[in-house]
Amino acid sequence: MKTLIFFFLGLGIATGQKTLQWVDGQTSPPASLENVKWIAGHWQGEAFGGIAEEIWSPPLGNSMMFVYKMVKDNKISFYEVGHIQGIDNTLILQLKHFHGNLHGWEEKEETIDFKLIKIENGVAFFDGFTIEKVNENQMNMHVLIGEDEKVQEMTFAYKRVE
């Protein structure tokens, strides 16, 4: 099983069964950025004793980019930069992590990739990562965090910043 790490998220609360995992031989369904354009905006939530801030652009150039910042004790814990990109008539979520000094976590050419499993009723299920529209001003991200037998699903709640 691949290693799953923290990524662009808000309020952490343990939950269950909101994520799906990729099965060998599976293919991603047809999808476009129109299916997830509601994610665009400025979002904030509490996370790990600090504040998580995430900003998503509207679709442009066949992608929706995002930046994420985790602030704890008034200091940057880490950043993320990534996108949901339309590729081969479906979507993929990709990201990279950075320390507060912008030194990368992943190797230069490496990204953390989440293949699309399905989209239904305002919920995008990527491999181990689910983005759920609660309403126009709230969304949840459900993420598998950990490694091998120590994987747990966490729910992160965001509110739209006006």
**What is the structural class?**
mainly beta
CATH topology: Lipocalin
- Give the CATH superfamily: Calycin beta-barrel core domain
Q: What value does the average pLDDT take?
A: 88
Q: Which consecutive residue ranges, at least 5 long each, have pLDDT under 50?
A: 1-15
Number of domains: 1
Number of strands: 11
* Tally of DSSP helical segments: 0
What is the gyration radius calculated from CA atoms? 15 Å
Assign the CATH architecture. Beta Barrel
Could you name the CATH class?
A: Mainly Beta
Q: What's the shape?
A: globular
Strand content: over 45%
- Please report the distance between the alpha carbons of the first and last residues: 39 Å
Biggest sheet architecture: 10 strands, antiparallel, barrel
Percentage of helical residues?
Answer: under 10%
Strand order of the largest sheet: 2-3-4-5-6-7-8-9-10-11
Question: What is the succession of H and E elements?
Answer: EEEEEEEEEEE
Protein name: DUF6265 domain-containing protein
